[in-house]
Amino acid sequence: MSLTTRLALSMALIALLVAGFSGFLAYRIASSHLERALALGAPGNPLAPRQGLRQGRMLAELRSSIALSAGAALLLGLGTGTLLAFSLVRPVRELSRTAEAYRQGNRARRAQVKGQDELAQLAQGFNQLLEELAQKEAQEKQLLSDIAHDLRTPLTVLQADLEALEDGLLPCTPEHLRRLQREVRLLSRLVEDIRLLSLAETGGLRLSLEPLHPGTLAQEVLQAHASRAKAKGVHLALKGEAPLIRADREALLRILNNLLDNALRYTPEGGAVTLELWQEGGWVSLAVRDTGPGLKPGEEEAVFRRFYRGDPARTRGGSGLGLAIAKALVEAMGGRIQAGSHPEGGAVFTLRLPQA
Which of 80-84, 108-112, 270-274 comes out lowest in average pLDDT? Predict the structure, then answer.
C-alpha cells in the first residue's frame, strides 16, 4: 500500500473514531441525564424541583456530557494519531540512523527495507546510494595507493642518485644525467596521464570532433612504429578500408599509438601486429591485433581499469593508465572500445567510432 493511501486512510480512521466515539459517549451521557430529569420531574413527585430550576439543571448536565465526550474524543484522537505517527516516522528514523552511522565510518550498515511503499523505495535508493559511495571511496583509496606506488620508484631512484652526486659517490657523467632525466620523464608522463584521465572521466576534456579518414591516420601510426617493429622483428600490416569518421585527431592518434605500443610490447620476435578497418552500419571499427600471449579469461574488462596489473608481463614499462585513457577518450568521442583474445591467438582491441 502506498504511503499516500496509508496517510489518507489513517486520517479517515482517526476522524471516524473521534466522531463515532464522541457521538456515542455524548448520546449515552445525555440519555442518562435526561432519564433522571424526566423521572425527577414526573407528576406527583414531591421532590420535583421548580420548572426553571429543572431546566437549568438539564442544561448544565448536557454541557457536562458534551465536555466529557469532547475530552475523551480528544484523548482518543491524540492516542491514535501518536501511534500512527510513530509507525510512519519509524522508517525515516531508520534512514537517519543509517546516515549517521555512515558519517561516523560504518560502511557496512544499510537501512532495513520493509514493504513496497514510497518509504521502502526511498530506503532502497538510499542503500544503493550508500553502496555506490562506498565503492567509489574504495576506488579512490585504491587509486591513491596505486599513484603512491608508481611515484615511489622513480622518486627513490632520483633521491638516491642526487644524494650520491652531492656526496661525490657518483660522478656527474652524461650517462648518470640521462638516467635522472629518464626518471623525470617517467614522473612527468605519469602526472600527465593522471591529469588527462581525470579530465576525460569528469567531462572536462575539450575535444575537437571533425571528419577524419581512418586509413590515413592508421598509416601514420604504423609508420611511426615501423622502426621499432623492424628492430624487434615484428611485421606491421594494415587491412581493410573505412569511410570518414567523426573524431578528435589528437585523441584518436593517442589511442592508436597506445594500442600499437601495447601490441608491440607483447608481440614476440617473428610475430605480427595488424591494424584492421571496416564499416558496420553507421559505425567504423578499428582493431589492433597482436600475436602475443593474449588476455586471460576475465581480463576483457579489467584491462581498462586504472593501474590494472594482471599479468606482470603485460604491464611492465607503462604507467598503467594507457588503456584506461584510451577507453575514456573513445567514450568521450561517443564510441566504444573492447578487448579480447583472438581465436587464432593474441590479443585484439577494437574501438568503434561513429561514421561522419
Answer: 80-84
CB atoms within 10 A of CB 182: 12
Cα-flanking dihedrals φ and ψ of residue 348, to 5°? Answer: -135, 130
Share of the chain above pLDDT 70, in %: 88
Evaluate if residue 24 carries a pLDDT over 80: no
Pairwise CA distance, residues 59 & 37, whole Å: 11
Helix (H) or strand (E) holding 228: helix 226-232
| Strand partners for 210 | 247
Q: What length is written for the chain?
A: 356
SS3 category, 167: helix
pLDDT digits (tens, 9 = 90+) for 239-249: 998 999 999 99
Cβ atoms of 93 and 81 closer than 8 Å? no
Backbone angles phi, psi at 103, to 5 degrees: -65, -30
What distance, in Å, lies between the first and last C-alpha atoms of the chain? 52
Bridge partners (DSSP) listed for residue 317: none
Give the pLDDT confidence of 279-333 residue by residue, as tens digits. Answer: 988 899 999 999 988 888 888 888 888 777 665 544 445 567 888 888 988 998 9
User: Residue holding cell 561514421?
Assistant: 355
Q: Which residues, in sequence order, are CB contacts of 337 under 8 Å at separation 6+?
A: 255, 304, 326, 327, 330, 331, 349, 350, 351, 352
d(CA 176, CA 167): 15
276 forms bridges with which residues in the sheet? 239, 287
